[in-house]
Amino acid sequence: MKRVLVCPVCGSTDVELDTAGITGKFYCKNCGYVGSFIIEMDESEYEKLKEAGELERFLEKKKANVPEEEKKPEKYPYENP
Ligand SMILES: [Zn+2]
Fold it and tell me: How far is the CA of 57 from the centre of ligand 1 (A)?
């Protein structure tokens, strides 16, 4: 089963590890979000949510369980060490 990374801000799967995984953060190529909080799920699950129009609600629910600090997008986390 293929796993996909989903951006918690815009719901895009165009997400990759930021700076080749060195920072442990994720980068969304769609909206520019950078942060340690990302949603991982099965591709089929993602497609199902999207088709049902439930993706947004699903993301909201996921975000509700995350501490404020983690949710904050970190544009350039490596700028100030
Ligand atoms: Zn995004």
Answer: 15
pTM for this prediction:
0.75
Contact in structure between 42 and 19 (CB atoms under 8 Å):
no
Tens of pLDDT, residues 43-78? 999 999 999 999 999 999 988 877 666 656 555 444
Q: Tell me how far the alpha carbon of residue 26 lies from the centroid of ligand 1, in angstroms.
A: 10
Q: Could you tell me which of 48, 46, 26, 56 has the C-alpha nearest to residue 38?
A: 26
Distance 81 CA to ligand 1 centre (A): 24
Give distance in angstroms: CA of 74 to centre of ligand 1. Answer: 12
